[in-house]
Amino acid sequence: MKKISLTQCGEFTAAHSHDGTLNEPSHEHHFTYQVTFFGPLNSEGFLIDFREVAQFLQTHINSYLEHADLNALFPYPTTENLAIWIFEHVRAQYPQLVRVRVYEAPDRWADYNGEENPAQQLHEPTPVQTHHAQAVIALGSNIAPEKENLDRAVKALSALGTVTQVSPYIVSEPEGFSDQADFVNAVLILQTDYKPLELLKKLKALETELGRTPTFPNGPRVIDLDILFYNDQIIFEDDDNFPLFIPHPRLHEREFVLKPLSYILPDYVHPKLQKPVYQLYRELMKKKGAPSCRIL
User: Fold this and answer.
1) Domain carrying residue 208
2) Each residue of 187-237: pLDDT tens digit?
3) CATH code at position 59
4) Are strands 133-141 and 224-230 parallel, antiparallel or unpaired?
5) Which residues are catalytic?
């Protein structure tokens, strides 16, 4: 049975009191946190319904802590004990929980995974390079070795920025021209400094470097790289050789795109359709009647 980890995020604003009062704006702190679950997939391809999780977090975590005095609720160090408190409350409802990470600032965060000594789970991460944009890239291959082709592409994309997440690989039936092998597809998140059209040109150059040669529309290919999203922008650039449409105009019609997207960005809202990914996926599944893609 396949298993996968999924992450849901939440946020709230709380306060640290230093003298027993909370009347100074400087006491306000914005916290974000991640709750990560691990377990078997269900028949719809989701571990749990993240709408239910989001509602639970809002009702039992965010609402309780919003504008609370954290120093009165938790012993010092506050962030670490807050991570433990969130873990215990969420784990009681969702036993699939494996980790809570609480951010008090970009360079200050704490992990807790239920170990007896939570101090061993605390980190002060090394600052990493930040990029100005988040691009979501789709990958596909149906010329052997398909999985290895995607592995090579993921590695090559690291030269264009920082790959922060990669979806599970899925197998999908060909569309447009059926007399060819099944595809292996995935999506990933790339933090990059390249502007959209520059990034598209880099992707097409990478396709050539990785062995793609011209065939015919919808034909077999060693690797295919497409930009699905770029930040929350809606973009059309009419370059003669590289016409660019963002968001990708047909992604909401493609199970082999929405299925892997639902694993890493289920709550991302399509900037043009104004619907989250998980909703687009479910609407497509209702329209199709049954899934045609499977996890590799």
Assistant:
1) 133-295
2) 999 999 999 999 999 999 999 999 877 775 666 889 999 999 999 999 988
3) 3.30.479.10
4) antiparallel
5) 212, 221, 224, 226
